[in-house]
Amino acid sequence: MPAQQQLLQILERKIQQDQLILPTLPDVALTVRRRANEPNVSLQEMADVIAQDPALAARMIKVANSAFMGRSIKVSTLNQAVTRIGLSQIRNIAIAMALEQVFVSKHKQVQQQLDALWQSSVQVASIAVACLSYYNSREARTGLNKDVLTLMALVHNIGALPIVAEAERQEALLGDPRFLLHLATSLSTEVSLRIMYAWAFAEPFQQVASSWQKLQPDKPGPGYTDFIRLAVIARDGYADKELQQRLLRYYMTMQMVPQQDFMQHPDIQAVYQDVRAVFS
């Protein structure tokens, strides 16, 4: 039996038997979420929590100073950064910034695949937020928030992570890295949902994970998943090119994007670069 088929069978069996080792959120992300849910938590207390992780604290200052927050005056301290970001956004942004810590492996080849998965998620998030920014600038009161979408996009394919990590334990079957990434994504939906449940993510996150691979729009919409689909379309990520093109035309009629090559639009490209810079 070819190695690729063996690996597929092993992964399918482990998924069906719920034997994959699921990733856990970094401790600081769990603490941020718990404290953010407390009704009387203060900005100072949130800053104290984030300060426990120097790398996360540095990233939060970077976010506060970025075009993502739409401010030109720079801040230099974590307290200033948390104040600028605000309690309503701090939870999603802090978790998003901490997520990269999950994409780690001691196996060099597997780490390369996890790096590729992370960069793919960052690109999807950047494109999706750029398209949402364009849409929000033209449609009042959409109710869709860029910090929520950022986190959703970063975890939309999170189920691929333990699938790739499982391949570390099947080293003789690793084979073509491109096949491994394709296989991980094709099998990821059920695993993503298990991770969302384990991480206690809300139902909208689970909805994104279960439906982003489906080439049909949210109705009524547009919804968060639609902007993630737009990002996948921008990366030419769907196998059915005819349906992909049809969905893009529908999103254009919904005025979510202005043109077929929407990543060339200056407003969308500018926000895309801004979001990418936050994760660089």
Short description:
With 280 residues, this protein is an all-alpha fold. It has one domain (3-21, 102-278): Orthogonal Bundle (Hypothetical protein af1432). The mean pLDDT is 89.
Description:
Residues 22-215 form the HDOD domain. InterPro entries: HDOD (IPR013976), RNase_Y/CdgJ (IPR052340). This protein is mostly helical and 280 residues long. The chain has a single domain, classed as Hypothetical protein af1432, CATH 1.10.3210. The chain is built from 15 helices and no strands. α4 crosses α5, α6 (87-98) runs parallel beside α8 (146-155) and α9 crosses α10 (177-186). It is globular and about 55 Å long. The termini are far apart.
Write the layout of secondary structure elements.
Layout: H1 3-16, H2 27-36, H3 43-51, H4 54-64, H5 78-85, H6 87-98, H7 108-136, H8 146-155, H9 160-167, H10 177-186, H11 188-198, H12 203-211, H13 224-234, H14 241-253, H15 266-278
Helix pairs in contact: 2-3, 2-6, 3-5, 4-5, 6-8, 7-8, 7-9, 7-13, 7-15, 9-10, 9-11, 11-12
Salient structural properties:
280 residues; Hypothetical protein af1432
3D shape: globular
Helix content percent band: 55-70%
Strand content: under 5%
CATH class: Mainly Alpha
Largest sheet, if any?
A: none
Mean pLDDT: 89
